[in-house]
């Protein structure tokens, strides 16, 4: 019998525990963010990317008007020792923010931030 997606996430987080947080001022930063990800060894980067893709698959569901959190997915990952959340951003309901985390290994699942280039002359 194939492992469930939640069990696979748990195994990926187990593997990620083998890697240390890179040195620097990055406490609390997401492992897939610019303060940590580029400084990880390639094997750890692959694990982080796989967690991000699988977590989105488990936690986020497509609906007619966009995407939203899957209550079942969130419940499943929480039952297996992860903290997770996903939902509309307080200041922009068209943008979703979220994460999945176990111990101090946080993976950001938020929509990309829009560019705020100030072209005013």
Short synopsis of the structure:
The protein is an alpha+beta fold and 121 residues long. It has helices at residues 5-16, 42-59, 71-79; strands at 60-63, 66-69, 83-89, 92-102, 105-108.
Describe this structure in words.
With 121 residues, the chain is α+β, with helices and mostly antiparallel strands. It has one domain (5-108). The chain has helices spanning 5-16, 42-59, 71-79; strands at 60-63, 66-69, 83-89, 92-102, 105-108. It has a three-stranded antiparallel beta sheet. Helix 1 runs antiparallel to helix 2 (42-59).
Topology:
Elements lengths: L4 H12 L25 H18 E4 L2 E4 L1 H9 L3 E7 L2 E11 L2 E4 L13
Antiparallel strand pairs: 1-2, 3-4, 4-5
Helix pairs in contact: 1-2
Compute the average pLDDT: 90
The whole-angstrom Rg is 16 Å
Number of strands: 5
Strand line-up of the largest beta sheet: 3-4-5
- Low-pLDDT stretches are 117-121
Largest sheet at a glance? 3 strands, antiparallel
Rough shape? globular
Structural class: alpha+beta
**Number of helical segments with 4 or more residues:** 3
Oligomer: single chain
* Count of distinct structural domains: 1
Beta fraction: 15-25%
SSE ordering = HHEEHEEE
Helix content: 25-40%
State the end-to-end CA separation. 62 Å
């Amino acid at each position: 019998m194939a492992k469930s997606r939640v069990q696979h996430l748990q195994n990926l987080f187990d593997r990620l525990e083998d890697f240390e947080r890179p040195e620097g001022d990055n406490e609390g930063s997401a492992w897939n963010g610019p303060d940590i990800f580029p400084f990880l060894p390639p094997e750890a980067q692959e694990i982080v990317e796989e967690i991000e893709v699988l977590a989105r698959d488990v936690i986020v569901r497509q609906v007619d008007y966009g995407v939203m959190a899957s209550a079942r997915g969130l419940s499943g990952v929480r039952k297996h020792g992860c903290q997770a959340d996903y939902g509309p951003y307080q200041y922009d309901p068209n943008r979703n923010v979220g994460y999945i985390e176990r111990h101090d290994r946080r993976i950001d699942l938020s929509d990309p931030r829009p560019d705020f280039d100030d072209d005013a002359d």
